[in-house]
Amino acid sequence: MPASTFRFQGWSLFSLLAALVLLMTALTLALHPDLTEGVRSAIRATARSSFALFLLAFTASAFAVLVPSPLSRSLVRERRFIGLAFAFSHLVHAVLIYSYGQLNPEFWPGRTTVGNIPGSVGYVFILLLALTSFKSTARLIGGKAWKRLHVSGMWVLVAIFAYSNFKRIPMSAWYVLPFGLTCAAIAIRLVGKLAQANARRRSSSPSGRAAAPLVATDHSN
Ligand code: HEM
């Protein structure tokens, strides 16, 4: 097995990322004199850490095809743990949302059922993707269903990130940045898929039999 460029791998990488999310949350809370405002800031901070981890998992296989390197290959190998760290970060987002609801009684009444739909759908997918990220549960649902769930789940989540950032642009022009990053990640993933399909076609055609595949294995989502 090729060596990973990451010093932390597998569960140690997950633990490191989870610890960083908790540290960031603790610092955000500690730096705010007002607890309610601190919790609100921590909700935003965990949305951002989730976003960064999600983008890594979402574009990993495309980067391995488009810019093959030890780093991009390590990213693909560690994608499961990066994805689980994303789920953990969003679990903290959920705990903070619950706490904020307790601290600010106007929070939930101020939200509409329709407004809660994208986030709730997102959480259903995060839960399903996290639960099926283990060998035993993945085997239980079968390879085809696993692939369908993980492909659709990642697209649903990227759409929620795009929407969540887009709807905040009128509040602050800074949200153009995460929205633009989301669009760029979608483009990178689509170009990566196209390059992968072309490479597969070339290697399966008689004239291109000797052509090496761009990535050795990619059962990507
Ligand atoms: C019902 C479930 C959810 C609720 C109630 C919720 C609630 C919130 C709240 C209160 C904020 C802070 C808003 C502010 O102070 O401006 C926030 C920020 C955010 N949330 Fe969630 N959220 C939910 C699920 C999700 C999911 C599933 C995603 C993504 C997959 C997500 C992505 C975001 C993003 C991108 C931000 C903006 C962060 C920033 O300011 O940069 N949320 N959410």
From TrEMBL:
The chain crosses the membrane at residues 46-69, 81-100, 120-137, 149-166, 172-192. The keyword Ion transport does not apply. It is a multi-pass membrane protein. Residues 204-213 have a biased composition (Low complexity). It comes from the Bacteria. Residues 51-160 form the Ferric oxidoreductase domain. Keywords: Membrane, Transmembrane, Transmembrane helix. Pfam families: Ferric_reduct (PF01794). It is found in: Membrane. This is Ferric oxidoreductase domain-containing protein. The lineage of its organism: Bacteria, Pseudomonadati, Pseudomonadota, Gammaproteobacteria, Pseudomonadales.
